[in-house]
Design a protein that fits this description.
The chain is α/β, with parallel strands linked by helices. The chain has two domains: 182 residues, Rossmann fold (3-Layer(aba) Sandwich), CATH 3.40.50; 121 residues, Rossmann fold (3-Layer(aba) Sandwich), CATH 3.40.50.1220. Helices cover 28% and strands 24% of the residues. A nine-stranded mixed sheet has the order 9-8-7-10-6-1-4-5-11. A five-stranded parallel sheet has the order 13-12-14-15-16. Strand 2 and strand 3 form a beta hairpin. It starts with a strand and ends with a helix. The model has no long low-confidence stretch (mean pLDDT 93). The protein binds flavin-adenine dinucleotide.
């Protein structure tokens, strides 16, 4: 076997980040002339395998095992380990979601094979395959080559590849089994938490004032609300703001938030990580303010201001209110 893509499920279907990883694997497979297979297991694995068989892949491998019906890092890692030992793929690829971050390193440790995480692309150079990732908060990009024999595990970052590039096809499903000893499965998980319903619909907004970690503390959030009121804009945010609980989920823009295309997108103290940019790059006019002149957000901005948002935002609000 050449390339094995391991699927993650979400609400009974293939998770978007897994489809992106599959699109990456299809592109890699074409470039290096290797076949792509897919592995489906876990809750609703039957549905996942059916969905996967409609893509351009060599075959779909299905595992149905009651031990995999709810998430367990031990069971998931052991399953992939056994499949890799049986099928000997050269690459094992997953979309690097938060769940996958929890167990993919375990697979690497159990197999004693390298794991390259948060990959955003690859390059082929002669016989070499180099996987690209960003380091130091996106300031540098490095190319990594595995020098060991046997499989290399690769976790593709969310939004690194687009599901729009997925090629359709028709593949056979092959069912295999693994041996999981319940006594050795030390962790079980609870039900996933429910996303909130309702909230703001940023997709319909004409203007969005979007705030990132540059705001530094919750006390400063009031200045964003004042600016948004002055501009009659909705408030968007990068993920850390939502993770900190400073705004509800529905304000998040990006690959795991909303995709927006307002006339004006004001990106304040947002670095421009790919997962954020993918959700706002369709905006008509992007204005970025960041104190780091090398911040990646300036690559997508129509207008850029290098400066301190904590000084600029109150003055900007005052100027707009005086108009
Ligand atoms: C699976 C997955 C999904 C994700 N989904 C999303 C998503 O949907 N949306 C999202 O946004 N992120 C998402 N992320 C997180 C993403 O990778 C970044 O970590 C996040 O976007 C960074 O947010 P930020 O730009 O606010 O923070 P940082 O990267 O910390 O950047 C803060 C920026 O503020 C600037 N700054 C600091 N102080 C000031 C100041 N006083 N004045 C001006 N500038 C200042 C800094 O120079 C820096 O550029 C996801 C990550 C993963 C792994």
């Amino acid at each position: 076997m050449d390339i094995l893509v391991v699927l993650e499920g979400a609400n009974g279907a293939i998770h978007r980040i897994s489809k992106e990883a599959l699109a990456a694997a299809q592109a890699l497979g074409k470039d290096i002339n290797q076949k792509v297979s897919v592995l489906a297991f876990g809750k609703n694995s039957d549905n996942l395998s059916k969905e996967a068989s409609s893509f351009n892949v060599d075959e779909v491998i299905l595992i149905e095992d009651d031990n995999l019906n709810s998430y367990s890092a031990d069971a998931y890692a052991e399953t992939i380990k056994q499949v890799v030992e049986k099928e000997s793929p050269k690459f094992v690829i997953m979309g690097y979601s938060y769940l996958v971050r929890d167990f993919f390193p375990k697979v690497s440790a159990r197999l004693q094979k390298p794991l390259i995480t948060d990959v955003i692309g690859y390059k082929t150079d002669g016989g070499k395959i180099l996987f690209t990732k960003q380091v130091i908060h996106g300031k540098l990009t490095v190319d990594i080559e595995s020098k060991v024999d046997g499989p290399v595990l690769v976790g593709f970052q969310s939004a690194a590849y687009s599901v729009d590039n997925l090629e359709n096809g028709s593949a056979e499903v092959r069912t295999i089994t693994v041996t999981l000893d319940p006594a050795q499965l030390k962790t079980t998980s609870e039900e996933p938490f429910q996303e909130e319903s309702g909230g703001v619909d940023l997709t319909a907004a004409d203007k969005i004032v979007s705030i990132g970690r540059g705001i530094s503390k919750e006390d400063n959030m009031s200045m964003i609300k004042d600016l948004a009121t002055a501009l009659k804009a909705e408030i968007g945010a990068s993920r850390p703001i939502v993770d900190s609980g400073w705004l509800p989920n529905s304000h998040q823009v990006g690959s795991s938030g909303q995709s927006v295309s307002p006339n004006l997108y004001l990106a304040l103290g947002i670095s421009g990580a790919i997962q954020h940019v993918v959700g706002m790059k369709g905006s008509k006019n992007i204005v970025a303010i960041n104190r780091d002149s090398d911040a990646p957000i300036f690559e997508v901005a129509d207008y850029g201001v290098v400066g301190d948002i904590l000084e600029i935002i109150p003055k900007l609000t005052e100027a707009i209110n005086n108009l």
